[in-house]
Structures are given as C-alpha cells and as structure tokens.
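Deliverable D2.4 — example input (structure tokens):
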C-alpha cells in the first residue's frame, strides 16, 4: 500500500469511463473537507449535503433539482439555502457552474485551486447528459496568450463543448 500523500488526491474516475461512482463522491467529499480545513472555512452540514447532491452523478444539476433532493431529507428547505451553499462551493472551487445549462457540477480538479485559478473545459454529452471536466493547461495558456495579444483582461475561462460521449456515439 502506498503511503498517504500530504496533498489532496484526485477522484478515482470521471464521466465517460466505467467506474464505481461512489468512489467519486467519497473522494470529492474527503477532498472538500481537507481543502476547507486548509482554507480555514466551514463546510457546514448543509453545504456538504449540497456538494454530495451535486456529485451524485456526472450530470450537471440545476439549483431547483438540488433543492428537491435536499427536501427529501429536510423539512421545506428554501431556495436561498441552496443558492448560498452553491455560492460557497463555487467560491471554494469545489463546483463549477455550467453556464449553458444553468447547472452545477463537481470540480474534479480541486488540486488546481479555486474557480478562477484554473481554466476549465467541459465535454458535455447532449444525449446522456454526462459531463466531464478536463483542465488542459495548454488550452488555458493558448487562450491567455490570445486574450493578452488583444489587450483583453480575462475574468473567467470556461469552455463548454457539447457532443456525444463514446457510448452514445456508438449507439
């Protein structure tokens, strides 16, 4: 057995690859706890539950769907509760917002820092709805170079690529 590293480990697998998804959720929660502890911020039980709901699959999930799932465990949660939790998770770099879907997905590259600290690219299957985050530094560097040449000050770099995953393309 390999010794434990002092850094936070990456999740076991991601969308489009057959795997035990419970490992993704367990890893994401463990990494979130460690990152919040290191940052000195509080991952409250509600925030953790919202994160677990977001990580419940590799499909981006809307805030009202999160609210509905949270309502199965809590008596009449209100939308601001979910939005505050999602805002916190975004600020900590634990989730991303997929703009085109108005939905959230867990960040599988938490080791790269907060939301603004890494360039995210998403492959989104239009058939099954799964999404996979890729964080290719070369893509981010290329975009930064082009923006700088244009005198454009970037605030956020996220690319959403819609298409068909391997399984859906094969069907």
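Example output (designed residues):
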């Amino acid at each position: 057995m390999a010794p434990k590293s002092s850094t936070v480990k990456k999740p076991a697998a991601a969308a489009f690859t057959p795997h035990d998804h419970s490992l993704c959720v367990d890893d994401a929660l463990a990494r979130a706890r460690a990152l919040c502890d290191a940052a000195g911020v509080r991952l409250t039980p509600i925030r953790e539950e919202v994160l677990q709901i977001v990580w419940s699959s590799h499909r981006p999930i809307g805030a009202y769907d999160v609210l509905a799932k949270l309502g199965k465990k809590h008596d009449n949660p209100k939308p601001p509760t979910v939005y505050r939790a999602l805002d916190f998770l975004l600020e900590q770099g634990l989730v991303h917002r997929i703009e085109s879907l108005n939905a959230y997905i867990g960040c599988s590259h938490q080791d790269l820092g907060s939301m603004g600290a890494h360039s995210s690219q998403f492959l989104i299957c239009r058939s099954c709805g799964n999404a996979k985050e890729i964080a290719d530094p070369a893509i981010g560097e290329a975009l930064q170079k082009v923006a700088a040449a244009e005198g454009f000050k970037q605030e956020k770099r996220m690319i959403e690529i819609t298409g068909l995953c391997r399984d859906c393309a094969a069907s």
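The longest strand covers residues 120-125.
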